[in-house]
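Practice set, problem 2.
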Amino acid sequence: MERKTIDPATEAMLQRAEGISTLFSRADEIKPCTIGAEGSCCRICAMGPCRITGKDKEEKTGVCGATPSTIAARNFARMVAAGAAAHSDHGRDAVMALLAAARGEAPGFEVKDEVKLEAVAGYLGIPTEGKEKNKLAEEVALKALENFGQQSGQLSYISRAPAKRQEIWEKEGVVPRGIDREIVEVLHRTTVGTDQEAKSILDAALRCALGSGWGGSMLATDIQDVLFGTPSAIRSRANLGVLKEDEVNIVLHGHEPTLSEMIVAAASDPELVEYAKSKGAAGINLAGICCTSNEALMRHGVPPAGNVVMQELAILTGAVDAMVVDVQCVFQGLAKIAEKKHCLLITTSKKAHIPGAVHVQFEEDRPLEVAEEIVKA
């Protein structure tokens, strides 16, 4: 049998799959589309989809006359816009959580790193002297939100880049103005009959990417440090062996630390630990998958059970009692495996539902209460 991984735990679980569909088996079954891989399939308008193929494909065009270069650039730019939207929307949620915490509207959340708060205020050009913690946090959140919707100028965090790099971006015209504006503009430019020059399209994609990297993504990192504490180096175990045979195993998977922070708090509640023991378990064990795993690891020492391609395999062990997910990187294939392996798949975001999962809406005005409901389930 062809070896599919260098990880012995993954290899062992694949041998136990017993005909159950996983990412690995589906990758074998599905042949990638070579036309799509080259960016040569255009499905942006209703006149297509137009597939540009053959030895003379460089001489061909879509129904509208779009060349292969234009089609490939549009496809790539739209992927950039989708990625920027996902990571920046995550950043927006973090900022909204900080704003709610500052106004006392999110019990359980508070500013945990005042030094980082003052640093972020400095990056955003906000004076800090003599300001009460929550007042400053509110100003930081409101200024951060402006970066999403502003229509002109440049993002606040662009000033953090090396001066020489800023000069290059300015010269090339790719300095992002507002996070959301650049995403919307890419989608507009790539609509049929709009921008039809590959270089122009790719310049817009680059500006959109910078808007995410030096906007939503960087804001998310800083704001999460303010809310949950700036992490430091920590030692942990890793891989599927962190699951425990005699405890209730809850796996956190997704991207939002607002959820994972509360699950960590709920899982250490003495009443819930006793509740688990009343059902015959020795306690409650938390583990992580993917990006949420990193958040829970670096602040609380919650060990990672695996990476993104191992999410189905964690459930396949039969040891996971619940996998709690929010947004991004969560496979729809989890639901069928969870059903077969007596595992609750719990979705928590209004943006991300999965057929066959149990949905428990995470609400930031009662975060710990919702987390306790999830852990008790």
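Problem 2, part (b): a different protein.
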Amino acid sequence: SEQGIRTTYRAVERSLSSGSQESKLLRSGANFAVVLISDEDESATKQMNDPEELLSLIGARFDGQKNFLFNSIITIPGDTACRSTNGYSYGERYKTMTELTGGLLGSVCASDYAGQVSGIAENIKNMAKSFTLSCPPIAAMGVQVFRDGVQISDAYTIDGVKLSFTQPIEPGDYQLKYQCLK
């Protein structure tokens, strides 16, 4: 029974209980990255096994402000050579989950995982350069970024709901001010 999405969903649910181990791990302001390696797809079809439901839960739990990345090393859908050897079944839902979060998608049939793991590590490292916005901001209005109450002028780019800097973000208490069409 392979249920990486469900396991992640349950960890987020458990983080709602103060004092739980998960509440210490999944705290506000901390990035959240999952690395999944599986030769099968999510084995159940309930709410907790659905990629969109997991994203909805994370959005609700962290007010749309959690920087979340789901990386998968799976039997990539369509890779018939892998499926006929070491890949038990295509990882359709894991692929969807990975694509929805901008994670790295790798093959479980690769002879060496070093390149894939290095790519995942780089993606996780880059999380320290970005914020997830609650909605796409109005471009003409821009985004004001404050660190410890002082507005900063570091250059950034916006891609959908991802605000990214060229360098890792300095430690501090951040506040973002922006407007969205709703």
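Answer key, part (b): The mean pLDDT is 89. The first helix runs from residue 4 to 14.
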